[in-house]
Design brief:
- By secondary structure, the protein is α/β, with parallel strands linked by helices.
- It has two domains: about 170 residues, P-loop containing nucleotide triphosphate hydrolases (Rossmann fold), CATH 3.40.50; about 180 residues, RecF/RecN/SMC, N-terminal domain (Glutathione S-transferase Yfyf (Class Pi), Chain A, domain 2).
- The chain has ten helices and 15 strands.
Length: about 375
């Protein structure tokens, strides 16, 4: 899988541009604030996911303009394809000239993995960031998961609204029973997807971390249920329903649903210790790198195609050993790397360089 041509019109600060990337490394360089990350972000949108920077549509459009448009010619599934995103009041997608119901329908058609400074939040921040990592990673290879997750979160919202009415004395807690049943059914599916994904990811990420750390440390992953109970797959639905039933009164007091996959976590350990609490800066970076490279490996295993690697301003954050490992690992991928100084990357065979200045991109020969 690789990008053949990219064009943008009024996307953030990007002017009317068109580039033809190399099949290998593409170095996107320039001073800060010139538009390098905007390019990476816009390519990522063709995965069918939201921006990794904002959920506000208007922020994706150049100031003073009413709409933006980005287009990607790419090779995937054995043929050349063209995807277009028009951004106005919402995002509208077309694939090979055919209008799509929503950009979400692009999930699984163009695959990419993005690594940016914000990726560290997976390790450093709270459970919500790790759930977000899992949800995006699974959706890229299992689009039906995104549908199930959306349905689950809507049910949680409806149950929470009912909890507030119960707290106000309008209804009895028995009214929660049908919502608990729906949550248990959909929540069990979400947990099952996540546990299976972590089981696949854990060995791959551990091997990658072992390579980065040169065998000095061991990384491990485990799924943490919000109710503290380990569950067998066959018991997921019943245990989740029973737990929701038991916590109804406490949920009414807090006015929110306190257990379920929307509260679960991914635990990341180094030598049996929490990477978040006890890992050094270097160890945490290595964990984040191992997770993202592991995510890419799973995409390739399932689809048979290597995803496009989008590296936004991360090389300067890695020491020499991690830089060398990353570039070696990505040796046969199509890669987009943003940086301020391209000199240390231009030695790579077949690399193309693109300078970004005030939203204008030009290839440097």
């Amino acid at each position: 899988m690789n990008v053949l041509k990219y064009s943008a019109f009024s996307y953030r600060n990007l002017k009317e541009i068109e580039i033809f990337p190399a099949e290998g490394v593409n170095v996107i360089y320039g001073e800060n604030g010139q538009g390098k990350t905007n390019l990476i972000e816009s390519i990522w949108l063709f995965t069918g996911c939201h921006s990794f920077r904002t959920h506000r549509i208007n922020e994706l459009i150049e100031r003073g303009k009413s709409s933006a448009k980005i287009e990607l010619d790419f090779f995937a599934s054995g043929r050349e394809q063209t995807a277009t995103l028009k951004i106005e009041n919402k995002r509208e997608a077309t694939l090979n000239g055919i209008a799509k119901k929503s950009p979400r329908t692009l999930l699984g058609l163009f695959n990419a993995v993005v690594f940016s400074p914000s990726t560290m939040s997976i390790i450093k921040d709270g459970p919500a960031e790790r759930r977000k990592f899992l949800d995006i990673a699974i959706s890229l290879t299992k689009p039906v998961y995104a549908f199930e997750l959306s349905k689950y979160l809507k049910i949680v919202g409806q149950r929470n609204a009912l909890l507030k009415q119960i707290a106000a004395g309008k209804f009895d807690t028995d009214m929660l029973a049908p919502w608990d049943e729906q949550l248990a059914v959909t929540g069990a599916k979400i947990i099952d997807y996540r546990v299976k994904y972590i089981n696949s990811l854990s060995g791959i990420a551990a091997d990658i971390y072992d390579g980065i750390a040169q065998g000095k440390e061991k990384m491990s992953l485990s799924y943490i249920h919000s109710d503290g109970n380990e569950k067998e797959n066959k018991e997921l639905l019943q245990v989740l329903y029973d737990t929701l039933e038991k916590t109804r009164k406490s949920d009414v007091k807090r006015l929110a649903t306190g257990v379920g996959p929307h509260k679960d976590d991914l635990e990341i350990k180094i030598n049996g210790m929490s990477a978040r609490s006890y890992g050094s800066q270097g160890q945490q970076r290595s964990c984040a790198l191992a997770l993202k490279l592991g995510e890419a490996a799973i995409i390739k295993k399932i689809t048979g195609e290597q995803p496009v690697a989008l590296l936004d301003d991360v090389m300067s954050e890695l020491d020499g050993n991690r830089q060398n490992y990353l570039l070696k690992y990505l040796g046969d991928w199509q890669v987009f790397i943003t940086c301020c100084d391209p000199s240390h990357l231009m030695r790579l065979n077949g690399a193309k360089a693109f300078e970004v200045k005030s939203g204008v991109i030009k290839e440097i020969s």
